């Protein structure tokens, strides 16, 4: 993958070996567009296609000269020209709602890059058609359910039929679908033997959750300022005594945001704060580390020739294998969601602290002067409800089990479910952090406190204070939280 700027539009060249998760997200969101594929990679894909055709014509190659799954022992004659299309038609049975355009475009980007790795033995015209669709914004209609973490067979079969002109495309205004291409018996399984949808969705979730994690630190720092908390837990000697990379990075960013020295001391009379503040690096850090782990797994997967069988140009052989099984992705996704959940729980703890007079020296729930004012009381309930939803989608998908295709495929990773759960977690996490941000800004206003000018935290405060309603009387806070949600991506860059 090579990225560069052209006419102020970012361009990405796929080469089958260096695609990054951030590039997938950019292509999916159309903040970047693909160029023509790397010529050497495209030539290798063409050689792989010719090799696969020769092998299938002279021997038994799974899915090309045989059936698939439990039908693997059934031979398919060379004269059966419809085998490939029948395979696509039979597998294009995904169910559920159509997926959002960005998720399908992420799948197209991943699949095009994987094919350029040169192990699929697929018609190179498929690669150029996928890239054409990415460039124009077109995407096939793909339904949500049809995979269990052993290949996104249904989604990619729908894509194959769309490429062949038998399945609908959706196009933005002014966009167009690729012209139909002819697919033969050697192209069907080679296209669908991939976890491209799962990997694309995972890349989108990773990109978004990283941004929300980044936004959570200035929000936490604003809450800490609002309660007059101690920066002592973030001291460099504390972090170096137990130097996990994520925790060390989180503490360093908190020090930078608030302009505190590497060896801060606690305020007079303050021994230690509740966990929501004191343990922030130790709980935020594992999420940062889990994000890096997931990124590493996805980077391997989106640049992998994982199709079954692997067509080896060097050996002129077809290797049958299990590289399509997505255990690495499933487990990394599960770990990441659980780690992010811990940081969300910490946000609700800080929200509760902001309602506590002993910490804020304000009225309960940050209420105004009216008798028994409820202030931000309801935000604890709203954030708690969102946390409950986030907890539900953080349940490990890899605990699932399935026995399929007459017992031949007796295990499933459910990475596909894990990716969808990660996307859903983004929505709930944003809601939780927005509740904290609304309360933190309210508390700072009530205490007439602001970060010192020139600090990154002052930028975060100014951004939120300008956007959030300053009224303190009891009133619905729904719109305040919606506004705060809209600030999070900008807060991430503070």
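^ structure tokens above, recovered residues below v
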């Amino acid at each position: 993958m090579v990225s560069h700027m052209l006419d102020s539009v970012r361009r990405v060249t796929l080469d089958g070996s260096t695609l990054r998760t951030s590039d997938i997200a950019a292509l999916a969101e159309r903040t970047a567009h693909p160029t023509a594929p790397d010529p050497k990679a495209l030539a290798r894909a063409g050689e792989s296609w010719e090799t696969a055709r020769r092998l299938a014509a002279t021997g038994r190659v799974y899915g090309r000269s045989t059936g698939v799954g439990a039908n693997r022992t059934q031979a398919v004659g060379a004269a059966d020209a419809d085998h490939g299309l029948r395979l696509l038609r039979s597998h294009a049975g995904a169910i559920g709602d159509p997926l959002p355009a960005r998720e399908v475009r992420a799948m197209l980007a991943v699949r095009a890059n994987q094919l350029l790795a040169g192990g699929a033995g697929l018609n190179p015209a498929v690669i150029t058609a996928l890239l054409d669709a990415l460039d124009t914004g077109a995407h096939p209609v793909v339904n949500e359910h049809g995979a269990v973490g052993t290949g996104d067979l249904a989604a990619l079969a729908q894509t194959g039929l769309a490429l062949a002109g038998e399945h609908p495309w959706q196009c933005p205004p002014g966009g167009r679908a690729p012209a139909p291409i002819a697919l033969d018996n050697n192209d069907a399984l080679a296209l669908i033997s991939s976890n491209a949808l799962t990997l694309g969705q995972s890349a989108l979730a990773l990109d978004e959750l990283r941004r929300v994690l980044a936004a959570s630190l200035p929000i936490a720092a604003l809450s800490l300022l609002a309660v007059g908390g101690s920066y002592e837990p973030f001291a460099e000697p504390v972090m170096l005594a137990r130097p996990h990379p994520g925790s060390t990075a989180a503490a360093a960013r908190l020090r930078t945001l608030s302009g505190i020295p590497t060896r801060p001391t606690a305020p007079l009379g303050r021994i230690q704060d509740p966990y929501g503040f004191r343990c922030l690096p130790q709980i935020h850090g594992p999420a940062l580390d889990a994000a890096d782990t997931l990124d590493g797994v996805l980077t391997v997967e989106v640049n992998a020739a994982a199709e079954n069988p692997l067509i080896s140009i060097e050996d002129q052989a077809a290797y049958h294998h299990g590289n399509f099984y997505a255990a690495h992705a499933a487990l990394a996704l599960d770990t990441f969601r659980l780690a992010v959940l811990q940081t969300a729980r910490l946000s609700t703890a800080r929200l509760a602290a902001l309602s506590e007079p002993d910490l804020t020296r304000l009225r309960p729930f940050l209420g105004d002067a009216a008798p028994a004012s409820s202030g931000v009381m309801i935000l604890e309930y709203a954030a708690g409800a969102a946390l409950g939803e986030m907890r539900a989608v953080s349940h490990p998908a890899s605990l699932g089990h399935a026995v399929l295709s007459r017992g031949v495929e007796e295990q499933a990773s459910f990475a596909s479910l894990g990716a969808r759960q990660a996307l859903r977690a983004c929505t709930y996490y944003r809601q939780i952090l927005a509740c904290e941000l609304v309360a933190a800004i309210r508390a700072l206003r009530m205490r007439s406190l602001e970060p010192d000018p020139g600090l990154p935290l002052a930028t975060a405060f100014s951004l939120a204070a300008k956007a959030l309603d300053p009224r303190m009387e009891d009133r619905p806070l729904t719109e305040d939280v919606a506004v705060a949600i809209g600030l999070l991506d900008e807060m991430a860059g503070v």
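The chain has 18 helices and nine strands.
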